[in-house]
Amino acid sequence: MPVHTARPGFFRRVLRHAWIDLVPLVRGEDADPLSHREAQLWSLILASRHVPHRLRRLSAEQGWGYAVTVQEWYADRAVQEIDLYFEENRPELARVALADLRPVGGLEPTLFGLALLILFYWAYSRTYPGLGLYPDLWVRLGSADGGAILSGQWWRLCTALTLHADGPHVAGNAAIGGVFIWLAARRLGSGAAWLLTVVSGILGNLFNTLVLGIHHDAIGFSTATFGAAGLLAGIAPFGVGGGLHGLGNGPWFQRFLRFVRTALIPFGAGLGLLAMLGVGDGEGNIDLGAHLFGFLSGLGLGALVGLAATRFGLPSKETDFRLYLAALGLPCAAWGWAWLA
């Protein structure tokens, strides 16, 4: 509201320069003095609009603080300039929906699953003559032998994930795979992350067998490890847990481009990991095809789950626990099928 002050006469304006404190005019008669920062801001506002003014520090009797004063005939303009500045720079109070960045799953389920993987290697790599159990028997029964799989021994797609050539092999897969699974568990929950990792490993072995044929054979959890890396890349464009759809708003073409840009970074990171760890030394010790198909399987599953999670939400804690039990039960069921077949 404009402030109207009595216009002084000509001689008073010329011979006596009265300076008026702007604080009562802008904030009311009972307003406190300005702080040093506020006084500097008011001074900057008036200086930018070429309004003559003075910045004065108040004494203890006046309440400390600062005052910005102008001559009487500039009072109306000074008040208008200050009010206009604060009106134009008023903060937006619109409610903004933020993604919930709190981790969904903890570290303990991932450590427990990796401990079971290492414990199983320790158990089957021992010899038990009384039971007729030898390490080679487990490998012959559960490796991803392409000819056996295509002949109907489908359990090998899962049991091969639990077999390893030696200690460093299982330790490396547990260390690298544990990081990816843990990161996925923070976004999806431990049960969903572990189940999708195991399923992506199974699908990776399946596609690898279909491509390479009956002469191919492989073991190791690394297929599932790259599946977890692909899973992270697949869910990256989606705000799972926060209720925000990764495609955003606007025309469909712009939403598609936004989706692609968001997915490129984790997808490139996954391809970089594939290039560093998946090529091997040329002696056939690393299965590049299984790593590639595991990553692509995880990528597809991650995109589907990310899309579903943004629309329907993440599983409840009870459901996630059941998914975790299902992920641990899949290898157990596969080995049971292998021994009973």
From TrEMBL:
Annotated compartments: Membrane
Main location: membrane
Domain of life where this protein originates: Bacteria
Cellular component annotations (GO), alphabetically ordered: membrane
Membrane topology: Multi-pass membrane protein
Residues covered by the Peptidase S54 rhomboid domain: 152-305
Organism: Pseudodesulfovibrio mercurii
InterPro entries tied to this protein: Peptidase_S54_rhomboid_dom (IPR022764), Rhomboid-like_sf (IPR035952)
Stated name of the protein: Rhomboid family protein
TM helices/strands, residue ranges: 104-124, 169-185, 192-214, 226-247, 259-280, 292-314, 321-340
Classification via SUPFAM superfamilies: Rhomboid-like (SSF144091)
Keywords, in A-Z order: Membrane, Transmembrane, Transmembrane helix
